[in-house]
Prior knowledge:
This protein has 134 residues and is an alpha/beta fold. It has two domains: 8-57, Roll (2,3-Dihydroxybiphenyl 1,2-Dioxygenase, domain 1); 69-134, 2,3-Dihydroxybiphenyl 1,2-Dioxygenase, domain 1 (Roll). The protein has helices at residues 16-26, 78-87, and strands at 9-12, 30-32, 40-46, 49-56, 71-74, 93-96, 103-108, 114-119. The chain has a four-stranded mixed beta sheet with strand order 1-4-3-2, covered by helices on one side. Strands 5-8-7-6 form a four-stranded mixed beta sheet, with no helix packed on it. The radius of gyration is 16 Å and the shape is globular. It holds the Pfam family Glyoxalase. It comes from Nitrosomonas cryotolerans ATCC 49181. This is Catechol 2,3-dioxygenase.
Amino acid sequence: MAIDGMNHFTVLTSNLEQCKAFYIDVLGFTEGYRPPLASSGAWLYAGNQPILHIMAGRPLPAQAQGIIDHMAFTASDLQSVINTLNQHNIKYELRRQKDSQTWQLFCYDPDGAKIELDFSANEPEPKGISNTTL
């Protein structure tokens, strides 16, 4: 067996519209085709690839399932992302990897899922990073 790539993540939400607004308005995903399923939800796309499946309509588990710590996405335009997060009063932490100089930005979705956005080392240092603690 060989793994060829990542297919998608699924997140559970207690509020579908709020969750969609975060991933679409803040992170820039687009909503796309979702097959007719029994549960409510949405499929969010990066380009032509459905990357994030949101499931609603069932209670969030009292205890976290599994051991996944966070979802990481490759991103671009760090300054624009910082501006958008600041506009939405979303707390984040921005780090720079020591060896690669890759920018790493961490934040949380409305239901508490941890998100990592990785930006090229070539991106300029952003301005207005006053909201950098989680």
